[in-house]
Amino acid sequence: MGLKSGSTFLGDFLRQCGGYAVIDGGLATELQRHGADLNDPLWSAKCLVSSPHLIRRVHLDYLEAGANIIISSSYQATLQGFEAKGISREEGEALLKRSVEIACEARNIYNDRASKGSWDDFDDGTGLKRNPVLVAASVGSYGAYLADGSEYSGIYGDAITVKTLKDFHRRRVQVLANSGADLIAFETTPNKIEAQAYAELLEEEAVSIPAWFSFSSKDGTNVASGDSIAECASIVDSCKQVVGIGINCTSPRYIQGLIQSIRKVTSKPILVYPNSGETYDGEKKEWVASRAVAEEDFVSYVDKWCEAGASLIGGCCRTTPNTIRAISKVLSLRSHRV
Q1: Would you call 265 helix, strand, or coil by DSSP?
Q2: Model's pTM, two decimal places?
Q3: Any binding-site annotation on 104?
Q4: Which residue of 103, 117, 167, 263 is surrounded by the most CB atoms within 10 Å?
Q5: Rounded alpha-carbon distances, angstroms, from residue 108 to 47, 59, 282
């Protein structure tokens, strides 16, 4: 599809969805529940090599739970990370494309079932009733590639510059931009230099599909590195390819204030997909149930997030199809009230 303006692309999609759209939930959490071993620097991207059928199954679970946007399994899939595992550049590029193809396959299965009358949420004017669905190609941060938890700190050191980050991400962004995805999701962005690098890359490469940016925060005021969320949102707001700005992999209790900060600097749609409120220990590589939010409490926040200005809502790490199903119900009720 040709690039539409930010207001047109997601605006049109949100109207199709009834004013609010549902983003999917945690991928790795579900892959592990289905038996995948993700103790690997490639994390969920390991399944692209070992068990792509599980990825497709998880995407489908989220679609059946009411997700309008499914995010590909390429978050930790970097060409450099694949090469470190002995996977050639060509194979790595094929795996990146495969991550999007698997998501598109899940969408096709879902739509096929919808056309047989299994679902009745959305009438697209052809007599078929289904949820409209976008596929987003995930790009994780440089810190995610390091697999040392530094995407949760954003502290990369003085040697890492905007140019270093552009060089690191460039080929992956090129491949994903031409993979058949509807948009690119730059996720868990921890600092402003990476946001700047992504924004420059989109323009330098004349990427023809839209993008959204989501940042992570540990305090409700700043992104993970300590950079101001408003400053980061301003950097990407000025990029014409950017169609949405928001927050992911952040505790639910911080989301409302972050939405308000972002709303002050952009008129683009705001998206939020928090984690369960648990904390990730990058050294031990495990989740610590410090302040986990029970599923029903997580969902109780949704109306507040919408009132603060968010229009695309889902879940990140440790959320499940049950979480997404509950979010979908809340947003459907709001849509009917609008």
Answers
A1: coil
A2: 0.91
A3: no
A4: 103
A5: 20, 11, 36
